[in-house]
User: What shape does this take?
Amino acid sequence: MLTVVQAFDRAPIAELATDDAAALERKLHAAEQAFRHRDGWLKPHQRVAILRKLAALMEARRDHLALQIAREGGKPLADAIVETNRAIDGVHNAADELRNFAGREIPMGLSAAAENRWAFTTKEPIGIVAAISAFNHPLNLIVHQVAPAVAVGCPVIIKPAAATPLSCLAFVALLHEAGLPEPWCQTFLPDGNELAEKLATDRRIAFLSFIGSARVGWSLHAKLAHGARSALEHGGVAPAIVDRSADLARIIEPIVKGGYYHAGQVCVSTQRVFVHQDIADDFTRQLIARVETLRTGDPTLQDTEVGPLILPREADRVAEWIEEAVKGGATLATGGKRLSETTLQPTVLLDPPADARISTQEVFGPALAVYRYEDLDEAIARANALPTAFQASIFAQDIGVAMRAADRLDASAVMINDPTAFRTDWMPFAGRRESGYGTGGIPYTMRDMTQEKMILMRRS
Assistant: This one.
């Protein structure tokens, strides 16, 4: 059995039966049979209709879904409502994308040997998708992994994070209610990681969608069946550069949102802030003043801005990293205190050592590290110095500075005067180097979950 608890106070919510090896085999067999029976594939208009009905069902249960996110995942309710709205829009996005989801003509007649021929490509579903998800967006991440598979016609088996399975189960139940036959989307709740690895690496899996730690993701990637594709979304240590031309009155709020949204438990949370020394004192004073007003506590309350970490051991780890940085010479400007088993005061650290874990590894907690710099290229070099690379920010009114940083920051996306954590669900979303593999975003995932077939006709 799997006990699901509230992230904030650890109060039990539900007891769920887990799946064993026999259950995994049944699910894989059902998915395989559905995909092999080509005459049983749902037509595009049927998939669109199912996705549209699913969005309507989710809309009707918006408040329930948001509260469930807040309870099991600890995301403040106001942000959980935003997540639910995004998830609903994401389902529509997958349906909308099918209107232009097509192959292309391949030019013929460009040589004598290619005369009197016509060729074009079509897109076909790649096969069974194994999706392993994370806790921090327990509904919207599921949508990003499942809705594209449904849209393009791939059977999908989804394993939610053990801490936050209820949002996934609710979503899949609504998907079945919307008309999708069960073999085309099944949940998998294994008792331990061994069976999750068995799912991901089974020979019948054609595509692995993994959101989680780099250690686990790269390990699974190396063990995939021959020919299987994957998309890996890991984390980073996202940098933001604040130029002396930045408008401090306008940038404090986005930086705070980027750093403390969902208590920093986001793969592109702002973690390292490099501030030009000419404005460092003013910036730091304003940043600390705003951080100290953040309301930390029960995520189910409307006015909570920072909720808990997902597990007590994660709060232990973040507190340990903060203590290590201070012992190494960092100034604890504000925060750092343990408020409960799972909550920490939002923290600002000034000039931690370059080799401290807060400077080199993803903290996944409510802590920002602020560093001074003199030269823009120096700040860019420090921002680029780690093996992780995902999204980055530059805050500047000087367009030359902004464009130089955008050009030279090693990131898949550079936000100008917006936080590193900014994302829409239709934009490309990808980690570089150790931070990931492949490109997320609903339209991009749909492309990855299909394969092109060329058809050639010879005219007599």
